[in-house]
Amino acid sequence: MTIREMCDAFDVTPRTLRFYESKELLFPIRLGQKRLFTRRDRARLKLILRGKRFGFSLEDIRQLLDMYSMGDQQKAQIAKTLEVARERLAEMQRQREELGQAIAELSEQIAWGERELADKKATVPAA
């Protein structure tokens, strides 16, 4: 696939693809100025985008992708992916709890502000 075809297929920008290439996450075939992406690159990009959606760091993604060709039927890669995924899930759950607390506190503050405003309107003498 050309860079344009990859962009269209995965809804990314050329800059994104060049960035992932510079970080050694993708390895397109270079023909002069032209980049051609293989089936392997497409599979890697799909995994990169999924990892980013889950909040994995680019370094974690690179390490996981690099483990693919270790020759152990991907056992090490799967085990490491599970480890990183469990850590990320725990972090996301912690963030969700913190967000829930912040939402509750902000809701309380809004309710307090509305009560205060209503009280002040009720006690203002008519002109």
Quickly describe the structure.
The chain is mostly helical. The protein has helices spanning 3-10, 14-22, 39-53, 58-66, 75-123, and strands spanning 29-31, 34-36.
Q: Could you walk me through the main structural features you see in this protein, from its secondary elements to its overall organization?
A:
The protein is mostly helical. It is 71% helix and 5% strand. It contains five helices and two strands. The chain has helices at 3-10, 14-22, 39-53, 58-66, 75-123, and strands at residues 29-31, 34-36. Helix 3 (39-53) packs across helix 4 and helix 4 (58-66) packs antiparallel against helix 5. The termini are far apart. The model has no long low-confidence stretch (mean pLDDT 92).
Protein topology:
Layout: H1 3-10, H2 14-22, E1 29-31, E2 34-36, H3 39-53, H4 58-66, H5 75-123
Antiparallel strand pairs: 1-2
Helix pairs in contact: 3-4, 4-5
Using only CA atoms, what is the Rg? 25 Å
Shape: elongated
Give the end-to-end Cα distance, rounded to a whole number of Å. 74 Å
Order of strands, widest sheet: 1-2
Helix proportion of residues, in percent? over 70%
Biggest pleated-sheet summary: 2 strands, antiparallel
Stretches with pLDDT under 50, minimum 5 residues: none
Number of strands: 2
Query: How many helices in DSSP terms?
Result: 5
Quaternary organisation = single chain
Give average pLDDT, whole number.
92
